[in-house]
Write a structure and sequence with these properties.
mainly alpha; 84% helix; globular
Amino acid sequence: MSEVRRWAIRLITNYIRLAATLAIGLVTAPILLHALGADAAGLVNFLVATIAVSELSQRVIELSMSREFSAAYHSGDRQWFHSVYSSAALICVIAALVALLAFAAILFCLPLFNINPPSLLPAARWFVLARAVEMIMVILTAPQINYFLATERMVVYNLWIVLRRVCSLAGALGLLVLPDFDPGAGVIFYGWASSGLVALSCVIFALVVFCRDRDMIPRRSRVNRRAIHEVVAVGGWNIGVMTALLIPEVVSPLLMNLAFGLVGNLIWGYAFQLAGYIRMTSSGMTTGLASVTARITAEPDHDQKLRAVVFHATRLHGLMGLPAAVGLMLLAEPILRVWVANRPNFPPDQVARTVTLIRLLAVAWGMRSVSEGWMFILYGAGHVRRYALWMLMGGLTNPLLALALMHLLPEPYRYLGPAWAFTVALSGSFFIVLPLLGSRWLRLNLRDMYAPLWRPAIAVLLAAAPVALARVLWTPRRDVVELLILAFTFTIAYAALTWLWVLSSSERKRLAAGVVNTTGRLLRRHAAT
């Protein structure tokens, strides 16, 4: 299979998955707000963010296995691959025990958090227990899931990710058919319904994999000390990277909770969720990128191919991440109102604060979405040991800066402290330090890291100008009509500028030819039927 075809399949399936998970997330949030009320919905936002610390072992395992599985698979040594696979399964058992201890620590600390009203505390405990069951099953079945990622079978892998999100939506929909219940009971039901479905899906998926290929059953005889060492060695550095990424996600809502209660978590949770979708626009290219880079690095004379990967990945990440960030900053208020803010359970006095949080966080997620491709390229090329410490330092800076800003900012703006800290720490480590060091390790000039971004950046600014002007001159309607008009204007302007300014003439020809050929095949098939 050609490299272009591999990239096309990976990108198409990734973006179908991202569109599905985006839609599911946007639908689930207002359902929970309607069914549970502001306090209980804020509690769910807070618990989901807090439980992220217990997901550290899962994320490290997945990230480590994706590269090590890919390197072993493409080495051509089938026996070595099965040794890595079975060894990873053993490591997952240990990781599940670590996750269990993390959940126990969260349960112990729950009374220390500002959960008000206190009647929601028992519900919080049951919710955490439900997520513990889910997380342990996800970790134990991680080798079967990551096998498809490492071998670049993106359709199956993306189908699994969507299935997990569907389970969350199913749990939320279940709240709508229940009779009247108190918010605490709703939190418990949602936690166990969604997590139970995910755990059941893990068991079914693993059994299907085992039935289709008996070699995928982990065997103790295949466990290899060298394989364990390689996965653990990479995993140790990935712990630093994942810790750096998780610290802001966990500490920020905790600070908001302690300072402002569940209302602080309500507005932070919605702002963080919306801004986090920016990363989804470019993560369609990030998923599987480490495996691709690992395969290319294993080839002789790979330097030229690696430079091409850096150029095209950076430009594609900019093409998707920059307009998503700028578009959300422009349209934060109408998006929030159409989504949740116009609903009865959303506090009207918190709309302006939430919009400000969204705009600040959009800057951070925009920077990360553009630069995350660099991180995965460096990881696939075997440089995780070099950048892990720098990422960890950036993550540790976040809570210190957030605490300082919450004390230094004037009273009306204290709630912005975590958002400012998140933006400064994330942008600095991802968009400045990472390319500065990565250019040396990849033997590139620093300008080669940033150069693919300047055309997309100009296209975004030009496309945003008429939308910004319209928002100043028009009386805001604050409804779905205004949102659709402005979003359509921005999208069309950016698409036209991308076609005329960003893409080269040869790329326009290839893209047009691909659309014509695909349309022709579809029409011929339709005519034949």
